[in-house]
Amino acid sequence: MFKKSLVVCTFLFIVSGCVYRDEPAPRIADSPVSSEPKLTKPRIVEPSPTRRRVAASVPRDWFPPANLEKKWKAIVVHHSATGNGNAAIFDKWHREGNHWDGVGYDFVIGNGTDSADGLVEVTFRWREQKTGAHCGGTPGNWANEDAVGICLVGDYNNTIPTARQMQSLAKLTRFLQRRYRIPASRIYGHNTTPGARTTDCPGRNFPMARFKSMVDG
Ligand SMILES: [Zn+2]
Known about the structure:
Number of strands: 5
Largest sheet: 5 strands, mixed
Structural class: alpha/beta
Number of helices: 8
Order of helices and strands: HHHEHEEHHEHEH
Bound molecules: zinc ion
């Protein structure tokens, strides 16, 4: 009888021991990050090792939301053809004057008039990864679909970009080049964009050769 009880007790101990070991460990003290469902976490883009050096030095809002990000293939540079302006002003013009859904560009680089000299403003179009309205204006235009539109505030038929505008433009362009593997041959002024309407944008004085020397090959 004693022997039988011992066997039963041993069996129960082993079984209960196994059951105990198989139970998941209590997670109450775990960090919220590991216990949160994945979908509720913010979708932050994690740069690959080769991009980390660039990523560390650029503003966070240059990174589009990971779940919306498109595969951009080219970059088109514009001037505003105005002496002053900023993203909010162009947004108003493009909504009210052109009846677009907002400013046509993805980025606007200030010249010190209505935004700081060299300040890169990120528009709703980049944040939402929407098709652009900066090159041709037709929905099927390849550049609106596939090219990032960057506008520098200024009229470069009469003036030239400021040094800070050029530095910001080059930095933003290099960031985009590395992120989307865009070669210098696919960086255009509006006027040299294949299929674009005839235009003098980004202005007769825009230093395209110098700009190309400031970006990746
Ligand atoms: Zn243009």
